[in-house]
Design goal:
single chain; alpha+beta; Alpha-Beta Plaits; nine-stranded antiparallel beta sheet; six-stranded mixed beta sheet; 12 helices; 25% strand
Length: 570
């Protein structure tokens, strides 16, 4: 039996070598066994190994190198002969000048299904960064340079001390795909393993997949993103598997502008206000939960502070990953703001008004743990600060408070309980070349993409007309929804083959919509499958080993079921 070992098969010159333990390069007899067996426990080890790899959106190069190393190791260990596996990449540059490189690995079919048409398996390489206790606005990359410290606790995988996100979204899917490099005993049709990038920023890698450089021959497509859940309230790690029939679409919006600023009087009082300890979370799956959005809370708190001092002037605000321009897909969990008040207003005056207000304000957000949430006001020192005028501060804060956010149109019958939603995920106001630089990131979602565009435009118009922000410029990326009928042959075969009765439509975006547009033959020939992952995009993210094992076994059964139907996979 083959035991998965991290591979240094490419060469010690690769940056990947620095990410892997020293034992990865050992010469072990088990590394030479062929054919091999990689069972469900092996998939867990692959996931743990991937977790050591730094893989933010737009920074997936170490993850691509890791995939290359797995391919090279499978050949080096004699599982596949040289030339049986192929690995190709595309390359494009997006509107923000990010270089994107998706990866396609082709694996031959095995057993009685070797001559069938291929099946595509697909998941994304990037992961969301979130860190418990990180100061608002602080870059998070350093917490992940050496990957995630994964621990196994009573059959559940999570980050050590729940310090960071786990990366099960979508690392578990990547691990299930890599399994097929290390197990030639598994009978399956030819496979096209699709590793995409920048999914968490709006399916950007999938949207830019180059069909000329990475053509698909697949007659069926299985996406391994998302998660299984009986509902989005209990966060059940043991939720039974479900076949995914579709997912919502959305429009990622990045807005730049400026606000006029002027010097703050030397005798003004500067106050730093910070909010930490909120849960945050995935802005699609968890948007309907009673969770506080830190940006909305900032606007509410500043409105209340203006009742104490109507001359209050905003100096700066940071919420979400402003410097990296990431986080549209997270409910923001903290902010840090600085503002100026008259010298007759003290920090104590503000605290006396804002702390009782906040205690009442947080009460409806029953997911939050009030003891863990900290609102702190303290004196601040900012070198030669500039600030918005009192009138501009009022206009800006009032506009933020009024922006559509959360569930916009409810649907009690759907998973998540909504049809249309929006998340205000990133906000920055800081000194710029001409006054105050403003950045706003938000993400409307709907199961009808046009509704997402309408809401996207409405929010942008509100910012233009009500906030006082000047010279607004917006970059949009559309992520299409997708939906397959329960009666589709692909769905019927998958359910029967894996013995899965449940199905679900995800209240968040996954990539099949982008790929069906590019490869129309896959319409009605796509499903999703994933284990029960809870609290994705938060430090509490976790997955049960049993659920991951069940999903791994179900995927193999589905591949066999597809292979058995000679009319479906010609």
């Amino acid at each position: 039996m083959f035991m998965y070992r991290p591979s240094c098969a490419l060469s010690c010159s690769l940056a990947l070598a620095a990410l892997l333990p020293a034992t990865a390069c050992g010469d072990n007899e088990q590394d030479q066994v062929s054919p091999s067996t990689c069972d469900e426990a092996c998939v867990v080890e692959i996931f743990k190994d991937l977790s050591k790899v730094y893989r933010p959106s737009y920074g997936e190069e170490p993850a691509r190198a890791w995939v290359q190393a797995q391919v090279a190791a499978a050949i080096d260990r004699g599982i596949w002969e040289d030339g049986e596996l192929s690995l190709d990449m595309d390359e494009s540059v997006d509107a923000a000048n990010h270089t994107l490189k998706n990866v396609l690995v082709r694996v031959p079919g095995t057993g009685p299904y070797a001559s069938r048409s291929p099946v595509a398996l697909q998941c994304h390489l990037d992961m969301i960064f979130a860190v418990d206790g990180a100061p608002p606005g602080q870059p998070l990359d350093d917490y992940f340079r050496s990957g995630v410290d994964v621990v196994e606790d009573a059959g559940v995988l999570h980050s050590r001390d729940h310090k960071t996100t786990l990366g099960a979204d979508c690392g578990t899917g990547v691990a299930q795909m890599v399994r097929y490099l290390f197990d030639r005993n598994l009978p399956h049709p030819p496979l096209e393993l699709m590793f995409t990038v920048a999914e968490e920023t709006g399916l950007i890698g999938a949207l830019r997949w180059d069909v000329a450089k990475l053509p698909l021959r697949a007659a069926a497509y299985i996406n391994l993103d998302g998660w299984s859940a009986t509902d989005l309230v209990t966060s059940d790690l043991s939720a039974p598997l479900a076949i995914q029939l579709g997912a919502a679409g959305g429009v990622v919006n990045s807005v730049d502008g400026r606000l006029d600023g002027s010097a703050v009087a030397g005798n003004a009082t500067l106050v730093k206000m910070s909010l930490t300890g909120l849960l945050g979370g995935h802005s699609g799956f968890l948007i309907g939960r009673p969770r506080m959005n830190a940006i909305v809370a900032f606007a509410a708190l500043l409105q209340e502070a203006r009742k104490v001092d109507a001359g209050l002037r905003l100096v700066s605000i940071t919420s979400g990953q402003v410097s990296a321009r990431l986080g549209h897909n997270k409910i923001p969990s903290s902010f840090e703001a600085v503002f100026a008040v008259s010298n007759s207003t003290t920090v104590a005056d503000l605290g006396a008004a804002l702390q009782p207000f906040f205690a009442t304000y947080i009460a409806p957000y029953t997911d939050e743990v009030p003891a863990a949430v900290k609102l702190v006001l303290e004196a601040a020192t900012v070198a030669a600060p500039t600030a918005l005028s009192a009138a501009a501060t009022k206009s800006f804060v009032d506009a933020l408070r009024a922006l559509p956010n959360g569930v916009i149109e409810a649907d009690p019958g759907s998973l998540g309980g909504w049809k249309v939603s929006s998340n205000l995920g990133v906000l920055g106001v800081n000194d710029g070349a001409a006054g105050k630089a403003v950045f706003v990131g938000y993400l409307p979602r709907s199961f009808i993409l046009e509704q997402s565009h309408v809401l996207s435009d409405q929010i942008f118009t509100d910012l233009q007309q009500q906030s006082g922000v000047l010279d607004l410029m917006r970059v949009k990326a559309s992520a299409p929804a997708w939906l397959v009928e329960r009666t589709a042959t692909m769905v019927v075969l998958a359910k029967a083959g894996a013995g899965i009765e449940r199905d679900m439509v995800l209240p968040a975006g996954t990539e099949p919509g982008a790929f069906v547009d590019k490869f129309p033959v896959l319409k009605d020939r796509v499903i999703g499958l994933a284990p029960a992952i809870i609290e994705a995009h938060t430090p509490k993210e976790a997955v049960a080993i049993q659920s991951l094992g069940d999903a791994t076994a179900a995927l193999q059964k589905i591949l066999v079921a597809l292979g058995e139907d000679a009319t479906f996979l010609r």
